[in-house]
Design goal:
Shape: globular
Distance between the termini: 58 Å
Radius of gyration: 17 Å
Strand content: over 45%
């Protein structure tokens, strides 16, 4: 009888994992000018309400900007001519555990950290071509002078 209970519990966890893993990492809250999300081989025009997924690349044009809220309430704000890749994102809303790995290839990025950085600061990394930043504070700004994508 105990075996059935354990098996059912394991099956429930396995069944729930794909739904949690496939959820959007966040959402575009503000967009001004040209904002695109590169998802695989697709270039998608993006505006407020557009879901941002792990592995998406968010790009802004000249005189453009984008504000993104991740599920853990991390706030990202990219300025004109920016290219931001959300390389890894995972968040458990119950435990607030997770991981953020992002790369700013060019442009500017302002970050206000959310629940993941407060719970597990070692699990949050932002990179540019010149530096990798591990988050210890709650707010910071990055600038990268990379090549066009």
């Amino acid at each position: 009888m105990h075996i059935k209970v354990i098996a059912v519990g394991v099956l429930a966890m396995v069944a729930a994992w794909p739904a949690w893993a496939g959820e959007a990492a966040g959402m575009i809250k503000t967009a001004q000018g040209k904002v695109e999300v590169v998802r695989g081989s697709q270039r998608l025009p993006a505006g407020p309400g557009f879901a941002v997924m792990q592995s998406d690349k968010v790009q802004t044009g000249a005189a453009s900007s984008v504000g993104i809220t991740l599920r853990d309430n991390t706030l990202l704000s990219a300025g004109a001519n920016s290219s931001l890749s959300l390389d890894q994102y995972a968040f458990n809303p119950t435990t607030h555990q997770g991981r953020i790995d992002a790369t700013l290839k060019r442009g500017t990025l302002s970050v206000i950290s959310g629940k993941i950085a407060k719970t597990s600061p070692d699990a949050v990394h932002f990179r540019t071509t010149a530096v990798t930043l591990g988050v210890r504070g709650t707010e910071f700004i990055l600038e990268a002078h990379g090549e066009e994508d």
